[in-house]
Amino acid sequence: MCTVTIVPKPDAPRAFRMACSRDELHGRASALPPNPALPFVYGDHLVSMPIDPVSGGTWVAANDAGLAITLLNYNPAEPPTDRDLSRGGVIPQLLHASAVDEVFVLAKSIQANRMMPFRLVACDGRSLMLWRSTEPIEEAEVGSWSREPLMWTSSGLGDHVVEGPRRELFEGWFGDEPDAYLDRQDAFHRHRWPDREHLSVSMHRGDARTVSYTRVDVDPDKVTMTYHPDRPDLDAKDSIVTLQRRLIQR
Fold first, then answer.
1. Are 215 and 209 in contact, with CB atoms under 8 Å apart?
2. Of 11, 63, 102, 122, which has fewest CB within 10 angstroms of its CB?
3. Nearest to 137 by CA among 116, 106, 115
């Protein structure tokens, strides 16, 4: 379960921020935060990501090429039951990539038919990819990002239950002031309806809650991951990893 947003940064053509609120059942083990002293290495790239101790994988990652990738559960009305691979292993298979078009190529080897459904989002500041694992990878939406704010969301209650309220909130949230997008993005992820906490972006219900908030800031000279190990509206000690950005000639 997740809510993911991407917003452009002003005055930098390929700079952006991806933000991810992670919702989990109360009994799930806490994630391991990204380690500022020991980034992961995938091929030629340094990588920052939190680790889910259950799967050994992750739901959000960024590398020093300025590529950010996240994965949301996809909850159709009748989900499959005969799946034996964790979705947590999807993103690590893609972190050798330097850009979205390379993610698309690498994603062709993912055994999505052995995993519960998911949506994969990748952005490099210039291009964006959205892939629903219930469709062939060839049907992924891949193309130029027009630098408008974007949102995707999911819930174990059924994605259709939360999509409407959160989408309506999001579409009225940012207005036409790009300089305010980053502050409004943080405020959006902190938002709670007191009478509809189960539908809120910063959510809480009897069996689940928002357990972390991760921001990936991709700037011209660096890539910074800030991991907040609780709801974004609650105090907690952040883990911050900054990677010097490698400029890839394309």
1. no
2. 11
3. 106
Task: Give the amino acid at 94.
Answer: L
Instruction: Tell me how far apart the alpha carbons of residues 192 and 196 are, in angstroms, rounded to a whole number.
Output: 8
- Own/partner contacts of 220-223, CB < 8 Å, gap of 24 or more, are 220/12, 220/14, 220/15, 220/245, 221/245, 223/48, 223/62, 223/63, 223/64, 223/66, 223/68
Q: Between 3.30.240.20, 3.30.420.40, 2.70.98.10, 3.60.60.10, what CATH number should domain 2-244 receive? A: 3.60.60.10
Name residues whose C-beta falls within 8 Å of residue 11's C-beta, 6 or more positions apart in sequence.
none
What is 190-225 written as a DSSP string? H---TT-TTTSSS-EETTEEEEEEEEEEE-SSEEEE
Distance CA 53, CA 50 (A): 10
In the chain, pLDDT over 70 holds for what percent of residues?
Answer: 98
| Interval 71-130: pLDDT, tens | 999 988 778 888 999 999 999 999 999 999 999 999 999 999 999 999 999 999 999 999
Tell me the three-class secondary structure of 136-194, residue by residue. Answer: CHHHCEEEECCCCCEEEECCCCCHHHHHHHHHHHHHCCCCCCHHHHHHHHHHHHHCCCC
Cβ of 72: how many Cβ atoms within 10 Å? 25
The DSSP call for residue 91 is: G
Model pTM?
0.95
Domain ranges within the chain, ordered by starting residue:
2-244
